[in-house]
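no rush on this but wanted to send it before i forget. theres a chain ive been looking at and ive put its sequence and its fold in token form underneath. i want to understand how the tokens follow from the sequence so walk me through it. thanks a lot i owe you, the record is right below:
>
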Amino acid sequence: MSLKLPFIEAEITDQYLYDENPRPWIIGFSGGKDSTMLLQVVWRALMKIPAELRNRRIYVVCNDTLVENPKIVSFINRTLTLLRKSATQQGLPISVHRTTPRLEDTFWVNLIGKGYPAPTNSFRWCTERLKINPTTRFIQEKISESGEAIILLGTRSDESQSRARSMKRHELKGQRLRKHILPNAFVYAPIRDIETGELWQYMMQVSPPWGGTHKELVTLYRNANSGDCPLVIDDTTPSCGNSRFGCWVCTVVSRDKSMEGLISNGDDWMEPLMELRNKILVERSNRESREKRRRTESAYKEEDENTWGPYTPKIRAEFLTMLLEAQKEIQDSQGDMMELITHQELVAIQLTWFRDGVFSPKVADIYNRIYETEIDMSKHVEKLRREEDLLRQTCTNEPEHVELIQGLLDLQKKKALKLNKRGLQQDIEKQLENFLAEKGRKAEPQ
């Protein structure tokens, strides 16, 4: 390790100073051991470069699926705050960003709202919606601004033989970069040759340059007895269900050993999450909990005894009830306002239930009973429904334009909320180009 580290930092420095027109670096950060070491060696290498030569922008990107383990969310939030503060104080060209799925793509809107069955290894609908798409949109935004981008990942050959083969297959001959599935994007894995034992030795001996220590991270791994979930940028990444830094709702595996480990080590407030996660897993295979018809975009198909469709309205309401009860119990016991589901998701779920002809119970009724409030979300639901209906009516002859327009509106809204419309025109043009290219591919004869 003592020989590898200086070489890795020197290589990072060379790569950083290589371009005349420096392509931005995008560092995938999950808060786990691999991405933490990656960020640390890059940060340390950057500190050794004279300030006047630090011309390459570095974006630290953390993808939040909105169903991350609450214990990890709290830890990562503190880490991201520290990263932002330290980067500013040290004058480094590093900015920190969090990506999230669109409202219509969130886990609860799909599972409770639309009744999507819980993900399986062969039907991981969650990966694309919660992880790949949000990160891809961010990468494409930076590519549209700079022409190209380099994605830095904490993937290591030591993690698995299949990962080592994949990294080797996509490597560009004579270079440390490998091709990415996105046009004009490349992948750089600086710590690919570091072994797990070496990584932990480094983390124990070298404090993070942004302040603090790695003691809490080490404790989280020790208590959960598991690995971490890398930034997902394509569908070849394996499930994070067995990992320490994954989604608490993951049903791709039969048991969530990491959450079990945390509970057995004192985090018993997470037991309601485990109960809900296990119920979601069980009901997936319960014939009585599933419709006998499949849903399309606007309606259900005819009933068929052999069809396993979405969850029934009864089961969806049970899921929502357990979720809100768990959220309230955790908020009461932990003394904070930890959210397991957002208000916007609740409104979107109610709208979806209305479209499916489910008028009782209402989302607000369930919420008010659990929280002992008198919230009325009918106005929000009606407004959202009118806007969507108007858009679909306008696009009757070109229904594929609905998603395009929603995406463009979402893009403009996010820019406005950030009070930063820099690059908006390029982002819009790029999104239109991608739409036309995809439409062209679908039109090609098979």
Summary: Confidence is low (pLDDT under 50) at residues 160-167, 169-174, 416-420.
